[in-house]
Amino acid sequence: MFDFLSFDPAPARRDFSEAVEKSFGNCADFESRTLSAGGVPLTLFYLDGCVSAEQISKEIVRPVSRLRARSESALLEAALGGGVWACTVRQRSSPADAVSDIAAGYAALVFDGERTALTFEVKTGDKRSVDAPTVEKSVLGAKDAFVESVRVNTALLRRRVGKPTLKLWETMLGSETKTKVDILYIEGAAAPGQVERIKARLSLPDIPAVLAAGDVEQYLAGSPRSVFPQVIHTERPDRFVLGLARGKVGVLCDGLPIGFLLPATLPDMLRVQEDRARHAAVATALVLLRYLAFFLSLTLPALYVAIAMYHQEMIPYKLLQSVIDSKQSVPFSTAVETLGMLLSFELLQEAGIRLPDPVGQTVSVIGALIVGQSAVEAKVLSPIVIIVVAMAGIAGYAQPSQELGAAVRLWRVALVLAAVALGFYGVMAGLMLLLWRLCDMENLGVSYLSPLTDSRPGSARRTFLRRPLRKEDRK
User: Fold this and answer.
1) In a designed cystine with 364, which of 252, 289, 321, 352 is the match (CB 3.0 to 4.6 A)?
2) C-alpha distances in angstroms, 411 versus 159, 211, 264, 449?
3) In whole angstroms, what is the distance from residue 211 CA to residue 41 CA?
């Protein structure tokens, strides 16, 4: 019960309130309101648009106006004891802490006489609803995907992990944005050393803003200079939970509708969640097909250039005659043709991504059909080059990871340049350099080619085959 005795307040100091108002100077969305609780003046601060006006009225203004107390300290105790109906309340004795909460979507009720503030979580409910994944298509799996709110994302994970073993550690990144970054792991499955190393990596950076995946990923990678992705990106909570159950550590960022899983390996990049929904034989065939597509996308243009320029004797006679006939009227060399087609392919892909969907699809179709056909008819390009580059591009699209596909495209051009310089010797030297680089990479003590590089028996079987789930989950 509250004390309803009258209270005659002394002239109140407004140092705390003035400090808050000064921090939000020249902010048109900053709002303040003076409330009276039994004659005690209190000041309410909030940011318009970041809070729910209905919640403020029902959970703060109405109950505060009904409070009565003998002193301001008693009024503060009454508010903390349930006099204010907001679910989440924090007591802040520093104006800087109160300002941080207000910027995060809280409303602050300032008690100037006590030089303290109570901040209440009354964030607006305006956010994107949980929808089906758009990048990682789900055929036989769940139809929900991560959104921009980190608390909604952790709730999606909690629904799937019905045990308190799912642990969550939170920090703030970005000196200007103060973005919530959560590290998640399943106790007993993840290696404690890996969790501590990730915490240490995220505790060191002092970057101004965390607004894109790369702002966090660069601190999670074990080899930041490598173009190959070292973090698994996923927008599917079911894949995220499966990674946690297998001992990986997850990272979620407020404002990003994706999750990060690490340590990541190359075989992880070539697996998809749908493999678990298919028969073991079908899933194994698809995994092998992705490895074949990875190899073709990486080496097919370079192999063609090396054979056409230096090793024509390897081409069957009828095919060689066809290639010679198609190139007789083409004014450019094989190297210029191939590099030009690779550049054109990248330009078409970039144009299709940046333009709106209907226009981007039109540009892709026109570029692939009309321009390509016209170039062949005008004797500017030979048909064999278009076939080789198109096959390499299609094989690249078969990669589940877009980041892996981008790394393959860069190395594809490098191998073509090596083939132009030294033929097959250049291609083999480039592949050996790539293999050495992949073997040398590791993150959190895990090799990038694991389990191929493991000392345990059956590493090749675990890499290329998908065994029945009764055996797969017990390995």
Assistant:
1) 352
2) 41, 28, 20, 17
3) 39
User: 373 near 364, Cβ under 8 Å?
Assistant: no
Q: How many C-beta neighbours within 10 Å does residue 21 have? A: 18
Task: Name the strands in the sheet holding 249-253, side by side, starting at the edge strand that comes first in the sequence.
Answer: 166-173, 179-186, 249-253, 259-262, 232-234
Q: How far is CA 459 from CA 98, 110, 201, 431, 462, in A?
A: 54, 62, 30, 22, 5
pLDDT tens per residue across span 94-110:
999 999 899 888 999 99
Helix (H) or strand (E) holding 431: helix 424-440
- 13: amino acid identity, one letter: R
Q: Omega into 263 within 30° of 0, i.e. cis?
A: yes
DSSP of 38-101, one letter per residue? Answer: TTEEEEEEEETTTB-HHHHIIIIIHHHHT---SSHHHHHHHIIIIIS--S-EEEESSHHHHHHH
Quote the Cα angle for 145-248-293, to 5°.
70
Give the model confidence (pLDDT) of 303-350 as tens digits: 999 988 888 888 787 877 777 777 777 778 888 888 988 888 888 778
How far is it, in rounded angstroms, from Cα 304 to Cα 311? 10
The yes-or-no verdict on residue 418 having pLDDT over 70 is yes
DSSP annotation of 123 reads B
Q: What is the mean pLDDT of residues 14-34?
A: 90
Give one word for 108, left, alpha or beta, with left for phi > 0 and alpha for psi -120 to 50: beta
SS (H, E, C) 272-340: CHHHHHCCHHHHHHHHHHHHHHHHHHHHHHHHHHHHHHHCHHHCCHHHHHHHHHHHCCCCCCHHHHHHH
Task: Output the CA–CA distances (angstroms, integers) from residue 332 to 148, 187, 381, in the order listed.
Answer: 50, 61, 8
Which among 229, 213, 262, 260 is positioned nearest to 407, based on CA atoms?
A: 229
Give the H or E element holding residue 163.
none
The answer to whether the CB of 197 falls within 8 A of the CB of 263 is no
Total Cβ atoms within 10 A of residue 470: 8
Rg (CA), the chain: 30
User: DSSP secondary-structure letter at 360?
Assistant: H
